[in-house]
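User: I'm preparing a small set of examples for a lab meeting where we compare how different chains pack in three dimensions. I only have the primary sequence for this one, and I'd like the structure in token form so I can line it up with the others. Please keep the answer compact; I'll paste it straight into my notes.
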Amino acid sequence: MKTLKLTAVMLLLSAVWSYAQTTPMTMFEKIKDEQVPAAVLQTFEQEFGSTKMQIKGGAWFSHFQHTTAAPADQGTPGTSRAIPLHYSYQGKKNGKKVEIKFTPEGKLVSSKGLEHKQ
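Assistant: Understood. Below is the structure token output for the 118-residue chain.
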């Protein structure tokens, strides 16, 4: 009876693990300036270049969807992809949180805690 329960639990865990490997996960990661697309940096400079120095502790973040395709058979590894959703620049200005979001193509999505040029 113990062997049957253990086998059932192992099969269930295996099924859950297989499903988790193929389900996309939304993630974010702190990145260096060099990793930010040129279009995003250009828009950031155009819209917020004059106030950039006032933002304390500013850092870039990449928000992306990570997917892993299960291997076709046990002999080959699965494939992994990171699809960018948006990029953000976060920091503080005068003690208030600042967050500026851009599409991967460089379009300004939103800005919180900071005024941008019209």
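A couple of notes for your slides: The beta strands are 25-31, 56-69, 79-93, 96-102, 108-112. The first helix runs from residue 2 to 22.

User: Perfect, thanks.
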